[in-house]
Amino acid sequence: MSTAGGTRGRPRTFDRDAALAAATQLFWERGYQATSVSELTQAMGIRPASLYAAFGDKQSLFKEVVAAYGHSPAGAFVGAALGEEPTAYAAFARILREAAEIYPDPSHPAGCLTISAATNVAVQDADVEAFLRDLRNANLRVFQDRLTAARQAGELPGDTDPHALAGYFAAVIQGMSQRARDGAGRTELIQVAELALTAWPTHRPSPRNRPASRPD
């Protein structure tokens, strides 16, 4: 005999993608440490046993959240710009300007999940902090590789330090994320992006070809 709730003894199924999206919102808004398993299961609409069965432990769920975030519009825009723009300047200009649009967007928590989700973690969760730090450092190496290629192609002056320039843009992007979490809106972040771009190295004339200075 059938019942209104379905076959007796069969576990209730859930929408995995919807549950993952709910976990993403919570981790993004509160960070890893401040998000409890009970809060996650309530937001995801599942029981703790279902969370562990479907995702493993909290840390495994978080890593799956980060992977999904990296393929979302809010997380994939950096890689898209680097892959699609024909020049390094165009790529970094696009990254900064899109960050200014995305980070304060009210449709999701402010800032970047991978920048802010593992701040002030407990000692037992230090590996989560290291996991995100490794991701950010990997992005830094991607920045450096793109800038090194730009220098080799003559797009940047030969004396440009790709490592320092990559670190500069990474610091600006991380700062923009934090400013968005502190309440900065699109207008302020656009101003930050445009100011940051003025630091882009330009070719300067050599002393031999430099115009003579005017006499006083």
TrEMBL record:
InterPro entries: Homeodomain-like_sf (IPR009057), HTH_TetR (IPR001647), Tet_transcr_reg_TetR-rel_C_sf (IPR036271), TetR_C (IPR011075). The keyword ATP-binding does not apply. GO terms for molecular function: DNA binding. It comes from the Bacteria. Keywords: DNA-binding, Transcription, Transcription regulation. Pfam families: TetR_C_13, TetR_N. Residues 36-55 bind DNA. Coiled coil: none annotated. Residues 13-73 form the HTH tetR-type domain. PANTHER family: HTH-TYPE TRANSCRIPTIONAL REGULATOR YJDC, TRANSCRIPTIONAL REGULATORY PROTEIN. This is TetR family transcriptional regulator.
